[in-house]
Amino acid sequence: MTSNLALASGMAEYPLFGVSLLIIACITLYGVSLCCKQRSFLPPGPKPLPIVGNVHAMIRRSPMACFQDWHERFGPIITLRYGQRLVVSISSYRVAQELLDKRGVIYSSRPRFIMASERMTNNMNLAIIPYNKRWQNHNRIAASLLDAGAVKRYAPLQDLESNRCLFDLQHSNDFSKILARYAASTVLTLGYGIHLSRSDCNEPEELEKINAHPFEALGSMYCRLVELFPVVDRAPYVLAPWKWLAAHAQRETTALHMKHLAAGMSASAWNWVHEAKASKLGQLMPDEELAYLIGTLQQAGFEAILTVTRLLVKAIVLHPECAERAQEELDHVVGSNRLPRMEDQNRLPYIHAMINEAMRWQPPTPFAIPHANTQDDVYMGYDIPKGTMIIPNIWVMAFDANDFPDPYTYKPERWLDANKVPHSSFGFGRRVCPGRHLGYSSTFIVIARLLWAYTISHAYRDGKKVEIDPWDLKFTFTAASKPFDASFRARSPHHHVALCGKGGTREGDTEREIDRR
Q1: What pTM did the predictor assign?
Q2: How far is the C-alpha of 352 from the C-alpha of 500, rounded, in Å?
Q3: Which domains does the chain have, with CATH numbers?
Q4: What keywords are assigned to this protein (predicted)?
Q5: How far is residue 348's CA from residue 351's CA, in Å, rounded to a whole number?
Q6: Which distant-in-sequence residues (6+ apart) come within 8 Å of 32 by Cβ?
């Protein structure tokens, strides 16, 4: 199937392409001429260029480097212009708490996302829709499925799926595929009763493809133009290539979510679809809307679990001294005769420290998802006009040397006194990630078990160590480690015997465990 980007590239040969660009340029200039002049008491920031604002700076350099420089020069709260959009970036955890947590009643909405929300997901993606009645209804259902109490009941499933990881790694060092199966099978089983028994199945790739649609859009010239200058979206369909791209992505996304919804409704085992359908809110919700709600939850869960577990494997390979300390803790608390369990969490502080430090060291969502305020506000004497895009700049927060001395070094021990260290990986306020408990616990159990069972180290090819560049990242909405190699060897003959007894999971095992939740 033709990819979205290839589809977009092919549009360049469309006969009306030149006319399209001319009309877009005229509409853009007209729209910009109607914009209000910058207010006098906005937070400080770099001087914007006419029309494009500050976007030009992030074309020449990475956005991360730009933001770090700007915040060093102008302080913890700065103003930018993204085309027609007014943006405030926050680099202080404490400022973010003050605005997004304490003033959450007016800072819990989202900016307008023309492509990712309106055109690609029909304004039904829980993560990016505005703070309105639909969001409140979706969030109530999500909370019932994903709060701390609900996630505790999913431990038997996480036990089976993480066992399968240990078993599969005896036969393959393709840990990325094995972790992708783990992440996908966990959320698909919970969402729809769909268990994945093989690491070479297509479902993880299908999920990654659908997850990539909004990011491919952001990488397209047409789509960036629309988000920077929303007035451009008024162009008629025949002259708007981005609308074709979005419609293609929307059809694929809707088809996948509806296919999964049907599977969930017909499944014999308990799943999120059954639970949501049985609720008062779910009974009133159209099937397509419910499909998007559950689909958004499983997409976000898959992406988060896979991204963070791969990041932790990289950290373990690059910092064997941290792995050794974690294994000493596991040997002391768990011993060598059984696997770590969820009940061991409170007695394994160093494992928690490794996870928290990984999410700080290379934040999976470097700029979070922007907030928007629903009324004018004043903070520290600065005006923040209604509708401003508010970026909780987690990347810059994570490398603040005042909070994290030697910030570019992976140091789990900094988290052992948790009261002294701020944490922002899951967002802020009412828009905090609803799946944080599931994502964290799924990461904890599989990483604890991998460390218990295996020595994880550099891979060797033709007798030479395969090096890993720790900062070789792919930046879209997320910051994910690019593919790398690692070696997994049983820690001892005793551990090898224990691993041989795992034997993987069977469909009936999964259904029985999830029904016992």
Answers
A1: 0.90
A2: 27
A3: 59-211+244-515 (1.10.630.10)
A4: Heme, Iron, Membrane, Metal-binding, Monooxygenase, Oxidoreductase, Transmembrane, Transmembrane helix
A5: 6
A6: 50, 51, 83, 84, 229, 231
